[in-house]
Every structure is written in structure tokens, then in C-alpha cells.
């Protein structure tokens, strides 16, 4: 493209900023036990606040809740829409514009969720979404491209706003001649894995936590089953997460983990450490190197802030795979109970 062509293309892109992707519309299913169980099994998350009705009835909430990291899952469009063709909307038009100009690669890179109210089985989720911003052209490790960010707002059947999500996607030009099938890849031997830290069942009090406290590492073997199973549990049917040929067409040697799984594993890691009566207030994830089958990801973290006024604790969390390095980094803000008495 000439400079003039780039300027004209970017003017077309910027015309999409502020456009509505979808008006407020209800999820096809209410918040329900079956989807929660499938998600928890895929993430290896045994939190009784999500799964054990008897425990939940005795807890300070008095009821089961849905995993906060499932916020976006309830309004996912489904396999027919994802595999065949999504209905025309501002986002699909934008993607087609990128594709028509050679920006064929697609990669979710960042997600920031804020949780304003905990969901429970029986709630009906409503979502509305707009295209919030589009970057200027960037040079990235995947190729030349543009980031675009959507802003989704979620509400319940009473009209209360329960959360928001900012989701950033990179549309890029795959390197010429890139062929993941030709890329040699052999995951290194991880050796003997560390024992998984025990999931806490007595929730920490915020007063007992200090900046600089470290969390025990958690190692996650990355298998094809985990990648595909968690993509299904998060209702993400993008082919790069289950179809090797499609993943290889983007320049990678195999399918790779979706960002909703990375987010779910980060949330599990945080509440395994803090305990089941924790309320997650926000979660932010930035992706780096992909997680592919055969790798092992080690998640680690430390306390980066404590706010006595709100009883909240911020964790800085990262996940590194043993082949290509930093897969994810981000923060989780937790609200914890005060000491009893």
C-alpha cells in the first residue's frame, strides 16, 4: 500500500469507532449449573462457591455463584454462528474490511473484565457492545497489523449493570510464505512436575496479607484435550483452537489456547490461594507467547497492593510456558473478608 492508500484505509477503519456491534440482548440460556460445572472441570477449578450447594448455603453469601471469569461466556453466539457465518454487524464488517486488505490473521491479545455484582444460577444475562477504538498500524511479532477493541456492558434481568469487558484483537498480515506445518516444534521435556498447591478452604482475611507476599507456583500441562475442552467450555468455536490446519495457516505449528482459558486459569489460581469466600472484582490478562500442546505453563504471582478501605488485594500474576516463555501476565483484584471478631 502507498501512503495515500494507507491513509484512505485507516479513514475507513476509524469510521467504525463508536459503532454498535449489538444492542442490549439476552443470552440464550440463563446462568446455569451445567455450564458452570463444565467450565470448572475444564479449568480444574474445584471452588465450592461454584459447585457445592450445601457449602454455599452455609457460606456468607448463602447461595451458589457463577465464576466471575465466565462473564462473557453466557452471551457467546454458539457453534453455528461461529463456524458458519456470523450475522452482519459492525464487527463482522470491520473484520471483512481487514481481510479484504490482507490482514487475515486474528489474535485476541488483551481482556479486562470488571465485576460489579456476582451472578447466580437463574440470572439472565444481557449484553450490549460497541467498537471502542482502533489503533494506528503497528509492527508486531506476528506481523504488521492493527488492534481494535470492543467494549461490552453486561446487565441482569433487573436492569442492573453487573460487569464490563474490554477485549482487544490484533488483525495482522501473516508473514509471506508462513506455514505452521513446516515449523519444527518439539515441546521440551518438563521433567517431574511440582505438586499442585492445595486449594484453600478457609478464606484469608485481608488484614493477614501484605504487599510482597508470594503465591506458590502452579504448573499446568498444556494438552490438546485442555485446549479444545476449555474452548468448548467457554463457548469459543474459533477454528484456531480446535483445527490444526487453520492454526497452521496463521503460522503456528498447532492449535493454541484461547484467551478465555488463560483468564479462567488465572482466576482459579487467585481463588485457590485466597479461598472460596473471595469476591473477584476485576481481572486483566495480556497474552504473549501461545500455549501449544505438549508445553507446561507455570503460573506464579505476588501481592502487589492492599487497600484497607475497600478490603481489596491486588495480585500480579504471570504464566510462563517451558518452550516460548511468557504466555500471560496481568492482575486480579480480590475483595476479602475482615478477620472474625
Task: Describe the protein's topology.
Elements: H1 3-14, E1 20-26, H2 33-43, H3 48-51, H4 53-58, H5 79-83, H6 90-100, E2 105-115, E3 126-134, E4 138-140, E5 143-155, E6 161-172, E7 214-221, H7 224-233, H8 244-249, H9 259-274, E8 279-287, E9 296-307, E10 312-321, E11 325-335
Antiparallel strand pairs: 1-3, 2-6, 2-8, 3-5, 4-5, 5-6, 7-9, 8-11, 9-10, 10-11
What does this structure look like?
The structure is a single chain. The protein has one domain (about 5-335): Roll (Thiol Ester Dehydrase, Chain A), CATH 3.10.129.10. The chain has nine helices and eleven strands. By secondary structure, the protein is α+β, with helices and mostly antiparallel strands. Strand 10 (about 310-320) and strand 11 form a beta hairpin. The chain has helices at about 5-15, 35-45, 50, 55-60, 80-85, 90-100, 225-235, 245-250, 260-275; strands spanning about 20-25, 105-115, 125-135, 140, 145-155, 160-170, 215-220, 280-285, 295-305, 310-320, 325-335. Strands 1, 2, 3, 4, 5, 6, 7, 8, 9, 10 and 11 form an eleven-stranded antiparallel beta sheet that branches. The relative contact order is 0.16. Helix content is about 25%, strand content about 30%. Helix 2 runs antiparallel to helix 7. The mean pLDDT is about 95.
